Amino acid sequence: MKLLNVGRLIAGACLTLLLASCAGQSPGAAPPEVDSYANDTSYPWAYNAPPGPLTPLSLTPGENNLYYEPILAASNSWGPIEIDRSNGDRYAGDGRTLTLDGKTYTRGYGTHASSEMRFSLKGTGAVCTRFTADVGVDDEVGNRGSVAFQVYLDGVKAYDSGTMTGASATKTVDLNIRDRQELRLVVTNAGDGIHYDHSDWASPKIFCQAVKPPEPRLMVVIDPTLQPSVSELPGWDGVTPQPLATLAGEDGEQADFVANALIVSTNEASVLQGFLSRWQGKILRTIDASALGVPDLPRQYLVQVNSSAADPATLIPTLQALDPNAQGALRVSSQEALRLLTVAAREAALGLVVGIDGVGRADTFMDKQSLEAPTGPGSYSPNAFDWNFLNTGSTQDIGVTEAWRLLEVKGKLGNKINLAILDGGFRINQDFPEGNLASAIPGVPADRSRLGGCSGGSCPWHGTSVLQAAMAVPDNGFGTAGPAGPIARFWAWYAVEYVSQTEAMLLARLNGVRIVNISNSQGVPSYLTWALTPWDLTTRALRSSGLLIFASAGNEGKDVDAQYCPLGICTGIEKTWFSPCENNGVICVGGLADNSKNRRKSSNYGGEDVDIFAPFSVFIGPDPDHPLNAARVERGTSLSSPYAAGVAALIWAADPSLSANEVERILLTTAHRSPDRQVRRYVNAFAAVQQVLGPFPMNRPPVVTIKSPLAGAGVQPDQPVLLSGSAVDPEGAGVVSYAWEVTFKDMSGQSVTKWVGQDPEMMWVPQSTLPIPRGCQGR
Length: 779
What we know:
Largest sheet: 8 strands, mixed
CATH class of the largest domain: Alpha Beta
Radius of gyration: 37 Å
Helix content: 10-25%
Number of strands: 42
Keywords: Hydrolase, Protease, Serine protease, Signal
Shape: flat
CATH topology of the largest domain: Rossmann fold
CATH architecture of the largest domain: 3-Layer(aba) Sandwich
Mean pLDDT: 84
Oligomer: single chain
Distance between the termini: 60 Å
Protein name: Glycosyl hydrolase family 98 putative carbohydrate-binding module domain-containing protein
């Protein structure tokens, strides 16, 4: 269908409503009639808006735009509704000038009872307040016809003209439509048929007022009830601890940070010296990224400052100068924190790259046999090939286990990929692959429990769980199995705040690490994003250097891209910056619901910044608080992120020559699609590895395992023997049949071979001594 006319609403003015009408094929020629307006026949016409949202129309002129759906549906009883002319006959475009009581109109609709038009009054940037129109029977039918005009607002009748004929005087409709969402214009035939019922909505107008968003308002208060997850961190000198503070915006997202030190990013000695002089600064840590092979990242200094000279009264105007849209209530935990933010804001306004030292809160094979912990929850199977968050054929169909098999068939399991976990609370056990454990915080043992809290409470061994989710060693009868388990070499750094995490990533890269996972997050109000600039520069530069960085999306069930929308008018400005999820260079990972393609309700999401999803719930093995060799379920995007990082490691193991960009592209382009609109994509490990290596080789013999009896076992004549075995098609899709062949010695000492059955598990009664099983053949 062809769009003939569209409409527009103008703020602070009135305009003509224009119907989006459609020109279809004209009806066939009518039989000759003396009066074509009264032949006892109806020629119905209808229009319905296409499925999905209609293209919005701009509000012009004015400071704001109004977007509305011009028409939802229309119907008419005598050909199509005519635009800017009377109904005329039953063909499109055959009407005359709109005329009521001798007065002509250039704008309006010519309809024929019974008719109806529905319009949306929804708008952005404007409020529609009034609807007016002149109504009556068009002069083209003389004194004949009888109709009634009705107006409905949100389904409720707001106007009824009563019966009008060609002899009736024109009536004017004038209605208050403020806060209404839908306008419906109806013409009935007044109960006596549709002869000559040519009804005009002449000069229909909607009056709107432009809406100006409220002036941004910002408040900063000290809230002593707001407390960081821990009161302090060990000091960089190994003696003096670092006090912590916290802040929270209107959405309640809490961000911990070091209360007496700032990160300064500069290569200019004079700039650094000026900052030190102004605030009696003392350098606690220097990171020279260039010396560690990342020249794009300026030197970073962690500087302890004396903020006593800072005037907190200047913080609000300084924040508004940095971001004119700053609004809402900012709470900080202490006077010291307030003064530190005042120092940071003042320096940022002067052009210095400066930021807080944030402390993230942790977010909570060929035989198709991979035996893990012997016990677990519910109907637990110790075989990882049965786990629905790892295998193929389950709802999620991620195929980690099939990716292992394909790597084995192609001879790639020997390609070891260095994968680093930046966290705290590591305790090496049998689930850890070969690797290294270190601390990026002087004086803090690498294997101590985690400093800092979790979004769900205490998590002293968070790092152990995160590492297991990424790369727990499979098929060792212990704990669990992670995607990268067969091919990973681990690097675990105790690093829980920005400076230690920056240093750890630089050292990781220097030691050949290709993938880094950071399973923590914190959100700051958007008007404080400048305070995360040094951290954002770090992730951007390290990603550009060839490092893949994965981070968890968070467990608050929030849209990380949510905007400020005062009075329903969205500003295009995000409410909260979630870091490192939204940092440049970071692959942000959300969590899938258990055995589902949909988002877990408590997982954060975002159409722009949450790049991929992975299982939210996985099996985790022992840690110091859970010493038994048993699998248990843990949940959180803290586990989704290392899971996705582990899949990236599988891709790199398939071809170690791939670049970081190529691995990321394969990870994202082979991902599954979800019916959940809040899930952009989720990991597909088997498809990703298969894209690199190609499919399984065809026509390989089955992989056979005899479980009972053992080869060479002695048995007694006439005593039942359990024959048990299994066979797997290496291509993964074939059907395997079984046949038992048993070789034994008869009474004369001669070797005899017999086929004794075709079941994978069966009882067989020997008729002589010492059967010698030769194998279970699969066909």
